[in-house]
Amino acid sequence: MLAVEGIARYRFAHPNPPPAGTGPAPRGMYVDDAAAGFRFAPGFQVPGLDFRTDEHGLRDSGRAWEPATEGTLRVVVLGDSFAAGWGIDDEGSFAALLDRTLTRAAGREVEVWNLGVTHYGPEQSLERLRSAWSELRPDVVVLAFCLGNDAWDVVGGPGYFRISDSEMVSAGWAPRGSPLDDARAEMNRFEGAPDLPLDGWLQRHSYGWRMLLQLVSAARGAESRTPFGLGRFDYEVFGGIPALAVEPEPDGVDEAWGLVDGVLAQLRGTAMSGGARLIVVPVPTRLQVHAGERGRAEASLAELIAEGGLAPSSRLVPDRGGERLAAICERLDIELVDVATPLRAAADSERLYFRFDSHWTAGGHRVAAEALGPALVDGVDVEVLRAALREEVAPGSYPTEAPPGRLSGSRAPARPEPADPGSRGRMR
């Protein structure tokens, strides 16, 4: 049994890499991280794109890792591809924009560090912060929480993706010593032998047992109990998992938000113990921002229902994820900053999400920065900040086509998009 367990743990730690060029991210983009599972590789550039990391593996300006000088307000931004600024050049993410403009608008020195990493979930952001805390010692921590998929990402947790031979591999969930392991094990339980003695304990602690159940389940044609019916759907318009934007909530969604609650409670504790403020920024999907996308989302939802992925009674509620997140933050006394409202206000005149992709354009990042800046530091001159941000990213001056790349969230176009600029609020 010990030999089987050893083999299973080795296989999990060293999964077979995918064929070259077929992984979910460019080869060499990530390295292993003991706590978060992976992080950006130091000194990496995405081939053909203005997307670089510094010597610390941050999409930042290569500053020294040391406490801030006296009088300087240090902000650390956490999150996934929205925080990291996927599709945006190195100077264009909302963190980079605020780093260059807030000092002028606030009348004091402000640093904004970007610890965002593509493919991260909230728990990985927490672990990344913990590992960097002693060097960075932030005054403010900002978590950009993607409403389209972060509640899904937390179900898999930090071990879901692994790095093998410089390629990212989906390894599936396995116990990692997290306080959330018990709940996560139940949500990822294989149906091979759920009633055997000690099954629950073994699924939480034994890699070998989970490997065995995976083989048994596959032989029986069964699957794990991972929540959310998944099949073909329009990722671009949903910005993630459709089950997070429907009612009644499918099985597992409530449990997933329970995991989010647990992660945010830990993040709040980490920030408070270090004397920092915590701010959560709900990142809306394009469905929440562009009302004209509802018909397209309804059509995709109908396909999922027809395929049995969601219940026949399912109805679209675009802001459901935002409501769940707001309730958690209210209970935990965590500050929220709304960026959805200003994004909606700007959506009729600017393209804020890439065509055929779920991420923000440089315009989307500018609007988010304008909304977030005044919440980070007292005394911000809003007009000065707005003017400075528009000097950095003028409306309509940026690319609206997503760059080529291998990140979840990018999909081939489902249908041609109208060329009329007046239709930008009704993207297709």
Give a structural overview.
The model is unreliable at 408-428 (pLDDT under 50). This protein has helices at 2-13, 81-84, 94-106, 122-136, 150-156, 181-187, 199-205, 207-220, 235-238, 253-273, 286-289, 294-306, 320-332, 340-346, 362-376, 382-392, and strands at residues 30-33, 37-40, 73-79, 110-114, 140-146, 161-164, 167-170, 246-247, 277-283, 315-316, 335-336. A hairpin with a 2-residue loop joins strand 6 and strand 7 (167-170). It is of the alpha/beta class. 39% of the residues lie in helices and 11% in strands. It has 16 helices and eleven strands. It has a single domain, classed as Rossmann fold. It has a five-stranded parallel β-sheet with strand order 4-3-5-9-11. Strands 1-2 form a two-stranded antiparallel ribbon. Helix 3 (94-106) packs across helix 16, helix 4 (122-136) packs parallel to helix 10 and helix 14 crosses helix 15 (362-376).
Low-confidence stretches: 408-428
The largest sheet has its strands arranged as 4-3-5-9-11
Query: For the record, what is the CATH homologous superfamily label?
Result: SGNH hydrolase
Q: Say what the CATH topology is.
A: Rossmann fold
State the total count of DSSP E strands.
Answer: 11
Biggest sheet statistics: 5 strands, parallel
Measured between the Cα atoms of the first and last residue, the distance is: 55 Å
* Strand percent estimate: 5-15%
Specify the oligomeric state. single chain
**Domain tally:** 1
Q: Please state the second-level CATH architecture.
A: 3-Layer(aba) Sandwich
- Give the overall shape: globular
